[in-house]
Amino acid sequence: MLLTDDLLLNFKRCERRAFLHLYGDRQEQSSEKDFLMKLRKENQLQINEYLGQRPYSTPQADDWETRAMETEALMAAGIECIYRGVLLYHFDAWDGTDIDSLTIIGKPTVLLRQAGESKWGKWHYRAVSVKLGQKPKPEYKLTAMLHSFLLEKIQGRSPRLTQLMLRARRPHRVDTELWSEKLQETVADCINILSQDREPEVFISRQRCHLCSWHKHCYGVAQAEQHLSLVPGVTPTRYESLQSLGVTTLKSLANTSPQHLGQHLGADVAMQLQQQAQSMVNQEVLWRVNRPNKMRSVPQGEVELFFDIEAEPDRNVDYLLGVYFVDRRNQVEKFYAFVAETLEEEGKIWQEFVDFVEGFPDAPIFHFSPYERDTLNRLGRKYGTPPQQLQDIVGRLMDIHQWVTKYVIFPVESYSLKSLANSLGFHWQEVGVSGDQTVCWYDTWLETGDRQLLDAIIRYNEDDCRATHHLKQWITEFIDSKQNTIVLS
Ligand code: SF4
Predict the structure, then answer these.
(1) For position 455, which CATH number holds?
(2) Given ligand 1 and candidates 23, 139, 212, which is best to mutate, with the most ligand atoms within 8 Å of its CB?
(3) 241: closest CA among 282, 274, 219, 211?
(4) By Cβ atoms counted within 10 A, which residue in 20, 127, 255, 356 is the most buried?
(5) Residues 254 and 156 occupy one common structural domain
(6) pLDDT by residue (tens digit) across 136-171?
(7) Do 255 and 146 sit in the same domain of this protein?
(8) Closest C-alpha residue for ligand 1 atom 5
(9) How crowded is the C-beta side of 242, counted as CA atoms within 13 Å?
(10) pLDDT in tens, 45-66
(11) Atom nearest to 215 CA in ligand 1
């Protein structure tokens, strides 16, 4: 069996993904998303920056076996820094498995020469992996440990240090004692699961799956099975609890009493999940049973503003502050986009935005998600807006997402703006576009000046603002129309 560090990393993220990478039908796999390509490009820039002026050597062969031999020759020659080397080792067995032949391949970003005896002389090597993440994720630590383990086998001694180089050149030292044991176990699990010809069960998790090239395929499987992971709020741990109660499908969840579910999940979660499943099975919007006792109507204004931000987190810029202006009195609706066409213009658009919203001091400002509030506070501090002036704006923010999730259960698989507004019949002009895509477009706009891309982002942002308006109208009517018929305890 051949096990690479990439396969192990994928396995750690999702067992099914590693399995599909090995045995899946490639026709079912989508092409790589632009956002992933952007991340790859950024990682390469980060690596270039790390290498800086440091001289290095690189093995030249294309195939792994030869490349690994070249890498070992460079290490034997005592080269200071080896970039894109390959560590390869053959094992006769692995604890916890029946395997009698295993080849493991690791590709650390660089191998750095260190003082200290090895089989080649008075030097040895340690591996450094340059990763784009801000945090030392477990899968990064695991592969860094794998590199260290392979090095020990190849050079006849353990490197003293195993390091990850994270974003902003933050080094992270991996605790080898802890991760050595985890590595042994995870490799064994990986071999055992990948040796079977049974696909690991699907589990759709928005965070983990949305960039995965198998998402379309897995989502189709999950839908066909009415898999419980499609129910908002069902986490892997809750899923296990549901299974132990014999609840395995959307319908069975909808039909199980919350009291029964509550034994394992707690009363509140049980009620929420059961209602959510009911709503999805019957395709109806429900009042949340465990909503707050005191119900508030959504604030109204003669003028209302609907606000949404586009940001490029990697460049640390909020480049579009979009406002959909609704004047009920004069029946005027208009979209305003404050756009930073260059990174340096963020301060300028912030001031334009502040001046604009101050022109309507009584207008509530509706948005969706906490990001807008956090960002206004941050931009205000960054650009020295007087605290009272900033508070006057932030104090008018109304998060529609909170209103929806506090009171209502929707028959949706996600409580994102797109999913909720789509379920109410609102459609975006830019079909199939996500926030990730707009980040890529903005980057390309900065590089190429292609105006069409910036215009597409503005249209997308306008639709986000309009969708917030649509949702706000709907939730307002829903609360007001049902208020008299609901018995408030
Ligand atoms: S879509 Fe999700 S469940 Fe399917 S392979 Fe990818 S990460 Fe795993």
Answers:
(1) 3.30.420.10
(2) 212
(3) 274
(4) 127
(5) no
(6) 999 999 999 999 999 999 999 999 788 899 987 778
(7) no
(8) 17
(9) 28
(10) 999 999 998 999 999 999 999 9
(11) 1
